[in-house]
Amino acid sequence: MNIEQTVKRAMHDVAELSDCQLIEPIKSDTLLLQSGLDSLGYAMLVAQLEEELGIDPFTELAITVYPATFAEFVAVYAKGLEQQSQ
Amino acid sequence: MNNLVGLLGEHGANANIVGAVETYTVHQLMVYANAYRQTYSHLSKQPAALIYTNAASFVVGMLAFDGHCSRLYLSSAVLAKDLDASITRITIDLADASATKSPNTESVVQSSIDEDQKQERLSGRVTTDSQCSNVVTQWYLATSGTTGKPKWFAHTLASLTRNSKASLTLGDLCWANLYQAYRYAGLQVLLQVLISGATLVDDDSDDLLLKIQCWVNTNVNAISATPSMWRQMLMSNHLHNVPLQRITLGGEIVDQPLLDKLAKLHPTASIAHIYASTEAGVGFVVKDQLAGFPASWLQQGVSNAQLAVDEKQHLRIKPKHELDAQLDTLIDDKGYLDTQDIVRLEGDRVIFLGRASGVINVGGNKVPPEKVESVILSVEGVSQAKVYGQPNSVLGNLVVADIVIEPNLEWVNISQTIRSQCKLFLQRFEIPVKLRKIDSLVMSPTGKLNRSDDHV
Predict the structure, then answer these.
(1) B417 burial class (0-12, 13-18, 19+ CB within 10 angstroms)?
(2) Domain of A32: which CATH number?
(3) Directed axis angle between helix B208-217 and helix B227-235, to 10°?
(4) Cβ B232–A33 below 8 Å, yes or no?
(5) Is residue B377 within 8 Å of B416, Cβ to Cβ?
(6) Looking at chain B, which terminus has fewer C-beta neighbours within 10 angstroms, N or C?
(7) C-alpha angle B68/B183/A43, rounded to 5°?
(8) Taking CA atoms, what residue in A is nearest to B264?
(9) How far, in Å, CA of B311 to CA of B196, rounded?
(10) pLDDT tens column, B76-92
């Protein structure tokens, strides 16, 4: 499963757990704040992805701009995993 | 000591509150306040609870009942359920008074008054009766106790406004309203706006992008929010459109990466993080854009309090004003209050680490672990439960639970029941995001759960 699929599946899991209604479909330019997850949902998503992928890129000082869209969110994880493997 | 009306008169303050429908000046709100004070003249020297509806209406209540009632409970509709039934609840909602056109003439103020009070026609005559009152009102604010039941702490207007300042620059500020003023942080913003003669934009949208657009349209240039709220605003990618001059953070531990991100996005804004204790009614402000506070303050003190760190690494505070008698057990013989905040000295900084009581701070919401544990332990088949915070980069902490179940029972069934019970009895942020089945829990020699062991 690639990172994008992992993130999407985790979003669905978290939406169910946190009683959020995810919008469909989630596209690259979908704004995170309008995806249906609220701040608690996002906190849970970041926690779940940390368990699955072993990283929380938002604790890193290197992230200076928060992602606004789904594609940017996935890119932050892709970059984090790339840095981890180096 | 002046009451709130007198204090605003002293500062010549002319604050504005931009509501969802209408903009009110403080002078207009004073007219409403006088009318309410007359309606509730029987509450002179009696306690009352003011229920929050919106900022402008709350100001009317504060102006009307400070210096009039003996005790004034600043409350929400939910919090008021825990108050003694003998205390009169007062709900003011100016937004309902659509018929009100000109409050300073002979028009009628038709704001909604609590159901148990008969609606009355009120003359809008401007008086200064309220300035003449000699009642020193005790203001009560709620904080969550260890069982989740709110605890009410007494304050005075003097202690609540000790950090409020007025100047020409401060009067030009236009604040967003992200808190509700029945909480300590929200009340601080509202009092600052009133005393400095600034403007407060009280939009009622739940959608952050709409809120930000509203702030841009109304020239908001000052925001006070929790670190979690600031992270969410940064996620919007629209925060740079708000021309911020004042950035205030409080209610949670403030970390350095967040301060750096805000400074980079708003290089000319002044950034302050506030440490406040609702119980103690004190706060101090750190403006050097570094996490924690200077260690030298432990010797020098801050403007309204002396600070110390005890042998358990708890921050202790000795304010200049008298503390609520309920806090006696936490005050040492030198008058220092145990804030229950654990700190660590790192070089020349004092850094906050968390709460000694185990209370979990989820994005500014305090979750007492005992409350969640009692819900989990009510599920048949659960023999032990321990709830604690797991550090999280979005909301500071999330709630997780370690659970021991009775032998030979199915974890899948029990965990499902726990989840549904939690949904029934807890607020969303209180529900554990993770349930971990474990074999046993470590107890202290006194048979209590060990809350200090490391889960990470």
Answers:
(1) middle
(2) 1.10.1200
(3) 90
(4) yes
(5) no
(6) C
(7) 170
(8) A64
(9) 40
(10) 999 999 899 999 999 99
Q: Which domains does chain B have, with CATH numbers?
A: 4-204 (3.40.50.12780), 360-437 (3.30.300.30)
Among B42, B16, B36, CA closest to B28: B16
Considering only the beta carbons, identify the residue of B208, B392, B433 that sits closest to A33: B208
Please name the residues in contact with B430: beta carbons below 8 A apart, sequence gap of 6 or more.
B362, B365, B367, B371, B372, B399, B422
Cβ pair B7, B162 in contact under 8 A:
no
The H-assigned helical ranges of B161-254 are 168-171, 184-196, 208-217, 227-235
8 Å CB contact between B247 and B269: yes
For residues A56-74, b (16+ Cβ closer than 10 Å) or e, as one string?
A: bbbeeeebeebbbbbebbb
Confidence of residue B147 (pLDDT cuts 50, 70, 90): low
- Nearest chain B CA: its distance from A9 CA (Å): 17
Interval B229-270: pLDDT, tens:
898 898 888 999 999 999 999 888 888 888 998 999 999 999
Q: Which residues face B362 on adjacent strands?
A: B365
B positions 346-405 inside 8 Å of A (CB): 362-363, 390, 392-395, 398
Helix (H) or strand (E) holding B153: strand B150-155
Under the banding of pLDDT at 50, 70 and 90, the label for residue B127 is very low
Q: Please say whether the beta carbons of A69 and A28 come within 8 A.
A: yes
* Contact call for residues B447 and B413 (beta carbons, < 8 A): no
Burial of A53 (0-12, 13-18, 19+ CB in 10 A): middle
Would you say A11 and A54 are in contact if contact means Cβ atoms under 8 Å apart?
no
**What CA dihedral angle connects B238, B239, B244 and B249, to 10 degrees?**
170
Which residue range is the domain that position A59 belongs to? Answer: 3-85
CB–CB contact B428 A19 (8 Å): yes
- Asked if residues B432 and A17 have their Cβ atoms less than 8 Å apart, the reply is no
Is 0.80 topped by the overall pTM? no
pLDDT on residue B144: 62
Of A17, A34, A39, the CB nearest to B394: A39
Contact B149, B133 (CB under 8 A): no
Total structural domains within chain A: 1
Instruction: Say if B261 is an interface residue toward chain A (CB within 8 Å).
Output: yes
Which residue in chain A has the smallest CA separation from B420? A17
Task: Name chain B contacts of A77, Cβ cutoff 8 Å.
Answer: none
Q: How many residues make up chain A in this entry?
A: 86
Identity of the residue numbered B227: P
Distances (CA, A) of A21 to A11, A35, A41: 10, 8, 10
ipTM of the complex: 0.90
CB-based burial, B356-373: b 16+ in 10 Å, e otherwise: bbbbbbbbbbbbbbbbbb
